[in-house]
Design goal:
107 residues; alpha+beta; 20% helix; elongated
Length: 107
């Protein structure tokens, strides 16, 4: 349900086109029961399947340690999980990029 906003037309001194902005943002408070999903790329671990990660030891055993080659390409998946684990457990989703080869067979 939208909040109704009263506009004070007396603030406009001349005719014209005016842009009015209304900020309806909310501050989100995360509780310990809130769980996050971290999406990224990893060369190790299951792909396209959410994995429950309760602690850093599990993350390293499933997805491996921090991968600098992926970080050079802009994927900070491992560091993101480790940062999110400071506040609680997370789900990690590895979107491994698959290369498909199309093979056409003529008979």
């Amino acid at each position: 349900m939208a909040n109704k906003v009263k506009i004070d037309y007396s603030q406009f001194k001349a005719s014209g086109v005016y842009t009015l902005e209304f900020d309806a943002s909310q501050s989100v408070i995360l509780t310990s029961q809130t769980i996050r999903l971290v999406v990224g790329f990893s060369n190790k671990g299951p792909f396209n399947t959410p994995v429950y990660i309760p602690d850093p030891t599990t993350m390293i055993s499933v997805f491996g340690d921090i991968d600098r080659s992926l970080e050079n390409k802009g994927s900070f998946f491992h560091r993101s999980i480790l940062t999110c684990l400071n506040t609680g457990p997370v789900f990690g989703l590895n979107l491994l990029k698959l290369t498909w080869k199309l093979v056409i067979i003529f008979k």
